[in-house]
Design a protein that fits this description.
Oligomer: single chain
Strand content: under 5%
Distance between the termini: 50 Å
Order of helices and strands: HH
Structural class: mainly alpha
Number of strands: 0
Helix content: over 70%
Length: 39
């Protein structure tokens, strides 16, 4: 319990959660990078 990240499943779940949270911002980030690249 003191080291929850020792369990591989917890790491996979944590990374998956972060990816799901960042997924909606992907199109906005890509379009923003495109605009910055055009300037």
């Amino acid at each position: 319990m003191s080291q929850p990240f020792k369990d591989p499943f917890n790491i996979v779940y944590f990374v998956g959660f972060i990816l799901v949270m960042l997924l909606p911002t992907l199109p906005a980030s890509l379009s923003w990078l495109k605009v910055m690249g055009l300037i």
